[in-house]
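User: Let's play a game. I give you a shape written as tokens, and you guess the letters that built it. Ready? Here's round one.
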């Protein structure tokens, strides 16, 4: 697979585009393997004829070399916690595959072919969330991947967990037999944190686009003056993210009959002593370009970093047939991904905080002055609208705030101090994953409140075309409600809608 952009990766992970190996890639892999096979004779090379980690000082005799490769896989399959969901496992496999096709790992072509089959046939190794310290990469998670490739462990197939050997037999796949360094190559690298990070990024982009859209809609509900998103104003701040967000908001708001023009109402003779319309909306409505602009910039950088990592070679050692040598180093260290995941989760948390404050505006009748408390369309005191839904949104936002403390700086030495400073990259990616899930929950409740507000004010026909489309999509999932009823199922349906459907900005 040639170097691809995020869309190309998404096509495979989310949209099940088949993964194909071209002849050039096959040749590079075979060249690397054949070079290593010749080069290794009479030389000491880490992880091929030595132990691993602090055990590297022990040479392994020729009779035990294949056992050595099996042993690193089996000994490191020690993960704990919930299994990674299939979408993250698929991204992990694709990332590991991408490293190998560079032809710098010395693995046999069989290795690449089996990973390809797993991806294309929908076979997902059982990989627990917990185990990686982010250097020497994601040893534990990747060991669980390797365990299934050699026909052991368990996999998820067609929605159920099975022994790997059974599924391989069903799909006519021959288990991998390690040749020279397949065990080490499979376990050593940043594929778990990078794969999880890529899925995080795709979901974070969905959240950002939705946040921009709902920020327009809530300003339509509030009948705000529209100059806060003007080109003149926002281009005077030299930040591309702010300018881009403002531009998207203007596009989304095109055709709206809800928002006001300041020049028509305020820049002319006005005899009012006390103004009914707020001269300037609350910050959560007015400062959206300034708040979501930095989020946009963070996501742009995250994409750059993750694509760089995805297309990198993260093995140790590196097998280079061009220079005819093997290089020992630390390309498995996940600092780039770890640091970026911390930044991403902070950005998503701030986005979530913005959504929660916008929601509070809708719920607080004394603040908005136009809606009943908690957008309750029933009898006040008898019915409760979305009063309790705010508890969920507020508590979930608070959890995001706590989870946004950095992981990147929490290095703990281990492995007999061989790994004396580590990245904790996979932990950072997993926590970011949790923050993103939380954000979808808060946004789902916010959408429900927005739809209720639109119905109370009877402004559907006055919304912009794009706003109206979102309103209609929400109402197809959650019809207008007056009487109290459990809403947890509707919230979950809205979450699924947000995660699977893109918004047009």
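Assistant: Ready! My guess for every position:
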């Amino acid at each position: 697979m040639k170097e691809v952009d995020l869309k190309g990766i998404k096509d495979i992970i989310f949209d099940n585009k088949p993964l194909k190996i071209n002849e050039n890639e096959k040749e590079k892999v075979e060249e690397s393997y054949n070079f290593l096979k010749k080069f290794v004779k009479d030389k000491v090379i880490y992880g091929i004829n030595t132990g691993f980690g602090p055990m590297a000082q022990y040479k392994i005799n020729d009779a035990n070399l294949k056992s050595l490769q099996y042993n690193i896989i089996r000994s490191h399959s020690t993960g704990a916690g919930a299994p990674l969901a299939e979408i993250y496992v698929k991204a992990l496999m694709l990332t590991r595959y991408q490293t190998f096709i560079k032809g710098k790992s010395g693995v046999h072509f069989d290795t690449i072919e089996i990973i390809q089959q797993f991806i294309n046939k929908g076979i997902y190794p059982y990989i627990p969330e917990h185990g990686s310290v982010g250097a020497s990469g994601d040893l534990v998670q990747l060991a669980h991947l390797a365990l299934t490739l050699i026909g052991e462990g368990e996999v998820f197939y067609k929605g159920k967990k099975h022994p790997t050997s059974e599924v391989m037999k069903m799909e006519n796949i021959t288990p991998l037999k390690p040749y020279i360094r397949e065990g080490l190559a499979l376990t050593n690298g940043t594929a778990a944190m990078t794969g999880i990070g890529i899925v995080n990024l795709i979901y974070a982009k969905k959240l950002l686009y939705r946040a921009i859209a709902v920020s327009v809609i809530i300003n339509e509900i509030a009948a705000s003056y529209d100059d806060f998103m003007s080109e003149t104003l926002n281009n005077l701040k030299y930040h591309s993210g702010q300018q881009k967000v403002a531009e998207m908001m203007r596009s989304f708001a095109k055709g709206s009959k809800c928002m006001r023009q300041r020049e028509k109402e305020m820049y002319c003779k006005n005899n009012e002593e006390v103004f009914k319309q707020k001269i300037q909306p609350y910050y959560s409505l007015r400062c959206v370009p300034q708040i979501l602009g930095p989020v946009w910039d963070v996501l742009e950088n995250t994409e750059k970093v993750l694509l760089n990592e995805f297309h990198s070679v993260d093995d140790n050692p590196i097998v280079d047939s061009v220079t005819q040598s093997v290089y020992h180093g630390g390309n498995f260290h996940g600092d780039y991904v770890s640091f970026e995941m911390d930044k991403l989760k902070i950005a998503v948390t701030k986005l979530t905080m913005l959504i929660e404050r916008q929601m509070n505006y809708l719920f607080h009748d004394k603040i908005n002055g136009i809606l009943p408390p908690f957008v309750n369309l029933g009898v006040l005191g008898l019915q409760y609208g979305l009063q309790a839904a705010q508890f969920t949104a507020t508590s979930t936002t608070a959890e995001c705030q706590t989870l946004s403390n950095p992981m990147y700086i929490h290095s703990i030495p281990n492995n007999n101090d061989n790994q004396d400073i580590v990245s904790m990259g996979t932990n950072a990616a997993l926590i970011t994953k949790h923050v993103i899930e939380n954000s979808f929950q808060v946004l789902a409740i916010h959408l429900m409140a927005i739809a209720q507000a639109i119905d109370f004010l009877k402004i559907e026909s006055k919304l912009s075309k794009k706003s109206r489309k979102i309103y209609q999509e929400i109402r197809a999932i959650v019809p207008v409600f007056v009487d109290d009823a459990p809403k947890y199922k509707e919230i979950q349906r809205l979450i699924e809608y947000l995660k699977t459907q893109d918004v047009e900005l």
